[in-house]
Hints:
Layout: H1 2-24, E1 37-42, E2 45-52, H2 55-60, E3 72-82, E4 85-86, E5 95-101, E6 104-112, E7 127-128, E8 133-140, H3 143-146, E9 155-160
Parallel strand pairs: 2-3
Antiparallel strand pairs: 1-2, 1-9, 3-8, 4-7, 5-6, 5-8
Amino acid sequence: MKKVKVIILILLIILAAIIYFVWSQPKEIGPLIEVEGASVFINNNLINAEIAASSEELIRGLSGRLEIRDNQGMLFVFPEADLRSFWMKDMNFAIDLLWINNNQIVGFEHNMLPPETGLSDSNLPRYISPSPVNKVLEFSSGSIEKFDIKVGDEVKIQYYSS
Length: 162
């Protein structure tokens, strides 16, 4: 009888380990929304945003581009609110960033400068959301001051397809 209890206990431990392993693996996100862009309105100001929804787009963001025009940006859309970490890897220009949850600004970073050349990935500064967010907007540097954006401001988003 003792032997059977030990075997059952071992099987339960193995089952628990398998379940933990499966649930703790990173999940492929795939496109979260099937749209091309969005009109983002903050304090009656319009930002035309590309959408980053696939795993590849979420990782790449605006990296590698030479510039971004005023009133343009990239909206990162996540499946659920969570703490998010961004960096400026391969960025060629400064940007402002808004941390957004449930269409409300919960924090921001302004004038995020491109990294110094030659910095390893492990030495790049990380920008972490002040609380869980389900959207992030990267847009032209100076826009936070220009549009008088503050924590608590409402964000209205209209998605569109081509």
